[in-house]
Design a protein that fits this description.
Chain B: It comes from Chryseobacterium rhizoplanae. The complex is a heterodimer. Chain A has 8 helices and 19 strands. By secondary structure, chain A is α/β, with parallel strands linked by helices. In chain B, helix 2 packs across helix 7 (about 125-155), helix 4 packs antiparallel against helix 9 (about 195-210) and helix 11 (about 230-240) crosses helix 12. The chains are: A alpha/beta, B mainly alpha.
């Protein structure tokens, strides 16, 4: 049975200052409407790409979104910043209406776009539980019945009759999430709310949400940038790009798609005329790609296989190839330079260089390559910076979801002497 | 095996009927109205020493000022009613109306934070504002009753059967503030100018309403005009019922009721229309 069905959902926003020209647009709309014509401003608008400067004043944050969600599914909605994730959640949770389209749901929707919505600082924890619960759509009776459970879950029992303005931010979030976690709606929409709170509490929340879908058969829509959490919690995924659905499927393949669609290309393959390939008169690059050694998702445990194919035009030199890997803080993680030909013996033609970055070297994060080719260890034949980028996903360790600090992520063997 | 029949319980659409007032949904959220009222009450007096006594101080001081300025200096007539009681009645009623109107008119702009994060029928908010103001009014009304009892004992107040209509008068006033407040709050989401207009509009409106003067003191043309002000019937009826003065007829109350109900309907319709998309323009 379906829990939710969205048909042709689109959402248009007006850019720039709302106000100037508002009245004239409104009058124009009204003029079209009374003549029985369609809203003239619906025809224009551009896809939502932040990076390009558009000509239109209107932009489509969501465009023709169609999907169905089965009852009991946990669906992760992923995409880059500005892909329309939050707008989609807002439309689904009725905070704002879609410009076009139709959504049907089976059951009540409760949305958690923020924890502690409506918390009043002057009111006590107890009063705020009731207030926040009521805002989220619970009745007084429901909250009363669950009150002890909520307080227990939050772990702030001692302060429950203290105004929440005296709470630490952690306590505040705990109490707020506890209320939300006990919602009884059939469909729960959760935005990136777990970014707050400590690791232990995050774990508890994710556990609770897992219970909600697996145990109680409720449907969850979850938006997060924390791929580890998404992978852990969700069974299915929807990938949004520029306001449109790019991919739908099980969560793992959606995350793989997401990696592929990363802003930086994770592979470069050129099959056409060599003259137009990346490079110069000395070197032309035909292929450069990174892929997981094991499995098909680049994560901490998968290792990274690097493959470079290039065409050399300089005969009889000593050719070397150097890879430099940098992270997004411009920190050089490693610099590997090796000869690919014997001394003074380079041939004109195609070379392929492959190597593996073993597991344990790279921590989760974004990386990119700087690549250069040298002649006789003296002259640069060709160099390219910022070339292939890729992202290594985190893998949870035990119950810890967040990314451990550190540039590298070695897995040392412990030699333990027990007492 | 048969597939279970797919059923839908809720739908979200781009367009909806203008006259779907969603009052049923508001009823389902009645506990939220209660919590909002409680919040308003609690937050007003936390960490104040005098607490609800502040409710008394406002009408007392206002009445004294009016007594001096309009009674002593401008020498406006009061239809023979004791001036203090006359002004206190006007001030008590007017305070309720103006504070309800001003508070409801900023529903959307003032609650954008909550409205942007969670859905509940937005009508809950202005409704709770009007009700929490009703509690303030209740306290101030007690003050009026005390003063009235004193004058009644002295034989200067002459109540009659219309006293029983008092709850109805209050209700009318609440609905009036609600209706107009909703219209303004809906329009200010796009046109912020209206908030400015309303600010001084309300203070001017007081002088168009028989708060500090009786209708009987108006010259003919203005008197006829005053009858179309929905508040005229309410204020005159109130003063007539409790003090026994004023130019009151049931027809006036009829006009008030009619105009107020129409404004209320318009208010709810516009409000429901705006609540769906105001987050994009506010």
């Amino acid at each position: 049975m379906l829990a939710l069905k969205a048909e042709n959902i689109s959402k248009q926003y007006r850019l720039g200052q709302v106000g100037t020209g508002t009245l004239s647009h409104d009058l124009n709309r009204f003029w079209y409407k009374i003549r029985g014509k369609e809203d003239p401003y619906l025809k224009i608008g551009e896809t939502n790409d932040r990076t390009t400067k558009g000509d239109s004043e209107y932009v489509w944050s969501l465009r023709d979104i169609n999907f169905e969600i089965e009852q009991g599914d946990a669906v992760g909605i992923i995409g880059r910043n500005g892909a329309g994730k939050s707008t989609l959640l807002k439309v689904l949770s009725k905070v704002t209406k879609p410009t076009t389209g139709h959504i049907s749901t089976n059951g009540r929707i409760a949305s958690l776009l923020e924890v502690g919505t409506g918390f009043h600082p002057e009111m006590t924890g107890r009063e705020n539980v009731f207030l926040n619960g009521a805002i989220l759509g619970m009745t007084r009776k429901e909250i009363k019945r669950k009150f002890d459970e909520i307080v227990d879950f939050s772990g702030v029992e001692r302060y429950i009759d203290t105004p929440v303005k005296r709470y630490s931010s952690g306590m505040y979030v705990r109490l707020a999430f506890a209320v939300a976690a006990h919602l009884e709606s059939e469909i729960l929409i959760v935005d990136e709310v777990l970014a707050v709170g400590d690791a232990e509490f995050q774990k508890k929340c994710l556990g609770k949400m897992n219970d909600v879908t697996r145990g109680e058969g409720r449907t969850i829509l979850f938006v997060s940038h924390n791929m580890t959490a998404v992978k852990e919690l969700c069974t299915k995924g929807i990938l949004l790009t520029h306001g449109q659905i790019d991919y739908q499927g099980d969560i793992l393949s959606t995350i793989i798609e997401y990696q592929k669609s990363s802003a930086r290309e994770s592979s470069y393959i050129y099959n056409g005329n060599l003259d137009e390939a990346i490079g110069n008169e000395n070197i032309k690059i035909k292929e450069f790609s990174v892929s997981p050694i094991k499995g098909n998702l680049l994560d901490i445990d998968s290792g990274v296989h690097v493959k470079l194919t290039f065409h050399n035009y300089c005969p009889d030199i000593t050719l070397d190839t150097t890879f430099e890997l940098k992270n997004y803080d411009e920190l050089v993680i490693f610099h590997v330079g090796k000869f690919v030909s014997a001394k003074g013996d380079a041939k004109v033609g195609e070379y392929t260089v492959e190597f593996d970055i073993p597991t344990g070297l790279l921590n989760a994060g974004n990386y990119y390559f700087k690549l250069y080719f040298g002649k006789d260890q003296k002259t640069l034949l060709y160099g390219i910076d910022n070339f292939i980028g890729f992202e290594v996903e985190n893998v949870k360790v035990g119950d810890i979801m967040y990314v451990y600090p550190g540039v590298t992520r070695p897995q040392f063997e412990y030699k333990v002497q027990t007492p | 095996m048969n597939e279970p029949q797919q059923k839908w319980t809720e739908t979200i659409d781009a367009d909806h009927s203008l006259f779907d007032l969603k009052l049923k949904e508001v009823w389902r959220y009645k506990d939220l109205v209660y919590m909002f009222v409680k919040r308003d009450f609690v937050s007003s007096f936390k960490q104040t020493i005098l607490g609800p006594i502040w409710f008394f101080i406002n009408p007392i001081l206002t009445t004294i000022v009016y007594l001096v300025i309009f009674g002593r200096i401008a020498k406006l007539p009061t239809d023979g009613a004791p001036p203090l009681l006359f002004y206190l009645a006007g001030v008590t009623l007017w305070n309720y109306f103006s504070s309800s109107l001003l508070a409801t008119s900023s529903t959307f702009t003032g609650n954008a934070g909550i409205f942007g994060k969670v859905y509940f029928p937005r009508l809950v908010t202005p409704l709770s504002i009007v009700i929490s103001n009703l509690m303030r009014f209740g306290v101030q009304f007690v003050l009026f009753i005390l003063a009235w009892a004193y004058y009644y004992y002295k034989g200067e107040a002459h109540p009659n059967i219309w006293i029983l209509a008092t709850p109805f008068l209050i209700l009318l006033m609440a609905l009036f503030a609600l209706g107009v407040g909703m219209i303004f709050s809906s329009l200010t989401t796009k046109y912020k100018d209206l908030a400015m207009l309303l600010g001084f509009g309300v203070s001017l409106y007081m002088y168009a309403t028989p708060v500090i003067y009786p209708v009987s003191s108006l010259p003919g043309f203005f008197k006829n005009l005053a009858y179309y002000n929905p508040l005229t019937g309410i204020f005159e009826c109130f003063k007539y019922a409790w003090i026994g003065v004023g130019d009151f007829s049931p027809a006036m109350l009829g006009i008030s009721t009619g105009i107020i109900l129409i404004l209320l309907m318009i208010g709810i319709v516009i409000f429901n229309k705006v609540e769906k998309s105001f987050m994009d323009t506010v």
